[in-house]
Amino acid sequence: MDQFNLELGNNIKSFRKSIFMSTTTLAELSSTSQGTISKIENGHSTSDIKTLIRICKVLGVTIYDVLPEDISKEFKTDNPNKEQLFNILNDLSPSEIKVILALLTTDIIPILSNLSPVIKAFEQMSIKERNLFTDLLESMKNNS
Q: Taking Cα atoms as reference points, which of 114, 121, 18 lies closest to residue 65?
C-alpha cells in the first residue's frame, strides 16, 4: 500500500464520517460501487479522477481537500468543516447566500416570537387553506 493512497483514503473517510454518511450511501450518490469506496478508503486503490471528483462533489469538498497534505497544503484550511461549508456556499445562488447571511447576522429570537401568531393562525386553518397558503409561499419563493 502506498502512502499517497492511504492518506487519500483516510481523508475521504474522514469527510464521509463527518457528515454521518455510510459507504453505501456515498457509493450510490457518486455512482460508484460500495467495494470501490471501501478500496479507496482503505488505501488499496485511488480510482480514476472522474470517480474521485464525483465522490468529492457528494461530500461537499474539492479534490484538493482529499489529497495528501504535502500535495495540497496550500489549498487546505485548518478546519475541514469550514472547507465543506465554503464549498457548499459556492454552489448557492446570490439570493440564497443573502438569506443565509441575514439568518447568521440577525438576532432571530425576536423574529421567531413575532412569528408565533402566524404559526397559531396556520394551525387553525383547514387543510385546503394550508395548501393554498403553502402554494402561495412556494410561488413567491420561486419568483424571487
A: 18
Question: What are the grid coordinates assigned to 11, written together?
Answer: 481523508
Contacts for 129 with CB less than 8 Å, ≥ 6 apart: none
Tell me the pLDDT of the chain averaged across its residues. 83
**Do the Cβ atoms of 66 and 56 come closer than 8 Å?**
yes
**pLDDT tens digit string along 70-104?**
775 655 566 777 777 777 777 778 888 788 777 77
Listed in sequence order, the residues at least 6 apart from 95 whose beta carbon sits closer than 8 Å to its beta carbon are 144
Does the structure show a pLDDT above 60 at 32?
Answer: yes
CA 121 – CA 129 distance, rounded (Å): 11
Whole-number Cα distances in Å, 52 to 11, 28, 80, 93: 12, 14, 17, 25
- The predicted model scores a pTM of 0.52
Alpha-carbon torsion (79, 72, 68, 18), positive or negative: positive
**C-alpha cell of residue 29:** 450518490
